[in-house]
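Supplementary Text 2. Reproducibility record for the structural model of the 229-residue chain.

All settings were left at their defaults, and a single model was retained for analysis rather than an ensemble. We include the record here because the model underlies the residue-level annotations in Supplementary Table 4.
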Amino acid sequence: MLTELIFPYSCIGCGLQLQRNFLCEKCKNTLFEYINIRCPICQKRLPDSTIRHDCIIKLGLRRFIYAMPYKHPIGQVAIHDLKYLFIRKLANPLAAALAHAIHCVAPDYQKYNLLAVPMPLSQERLRWRGFNQSALLSKTISSLLNIQMASEDILIRPKNTKPQLNLKRDERFENISGAFAVTNNETLQGRNILLIDDVATTCATLKEAAAVLKQNGARSVWAAIVAKE
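Retained model, structure tokens:
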């Protein structure tokens, strides 16, 4: 691939020269060390990832899982290089770390017949990047945990919104309002959805997507995020 010619193989964490990889074992293992889930609303610890009733009402999510804080020194670089240097191979270790977190804090996940749904990109953003990083994460997680994955286009983002990164909290909720749509609600009927994304900050995007999924028949929505800011 072109990116592999431009960026020779070396560990993004320590610079060690590698063959056909961008993370050495030592740096990759740091992605699996942090599991201390807190509710994004009340900040209380969630040992089994289940959100309190009052916070479910505010957020629309039944469970909330993330693999690491966004400021994780290796994870932050890996997410950046996946999204902005287009190094797709970094999706695998990030997804593996998230799968590990799901297994640790929600070991009963198999009882819920989860359907993995990747957070969609707008068509403008998808054309620019060439791939949806959340879809790459979803494919690996689906394989590692034996969770069915929905079609990548079951949840779409027909509205071209401003990047959330540059907006204040209230602006993020307004910006993302009405951004999502479902293309096939028959698949969602009565299903527990595992909504997968790379980064969550205010959770405005997760809240909006969860609302649309439930309006179209989903029984509940869990969020699985690589990193939480």
